[in-house]
Design goal:
Oligomer: single chain
Largest sheet: 4 strands, antiparallel
Helix content: under 10%
Number of strands: 6
Shape: globular
Structural class: mainly beta
Distance between the termini: 34 Å
Length: 97
């Protein structure tokens, strides 16, 4: 799975927040306010090859030794689960409710 680096601003389809790219050299793939994502990648991060395009709900967190804390997203349409690295400005308190 190739990693395709994409620094793109977007409007969150879940909460409509304007989301800017990260400035620390990392890549954002979810909204930092509500933590929702979108099922756009198929075979690897950044490929934008998924035909699903549905919203992905944050359903939990996981810790990976080499990557740190990850938000686990589950697609509301097809059920696919994808872990994504947390970003420095993520509001992780939304997972508590």
């Amino acid at each position: 799975m190739p990693f395709i680096a994409r620094q793109e601003p977007f409007v969150c389809d879940h909460c409509q927040a304007d989301v800017a790219p990260l400035e620390n050299g990392s890549y954002r793939n979810h909204c930092p306010k509500c933590l929702w994502s979108k099922h756009v990648d198929k075979d690897g991060p950044g490929d934008r090859a998924s035909e699903c395009k549905s919203l992905m709900k944050p359903v939990g967190v996981d810790y990976r030794k080499k990557k740190g804390w990850m938000i686990v997203h589950q697609c509301e349409a097809c059920g696919k689960e994808i872990p994504n690295m947390t970003a420095c400005d993520d509001d992780l308190t939304v997972l508590e409710s």
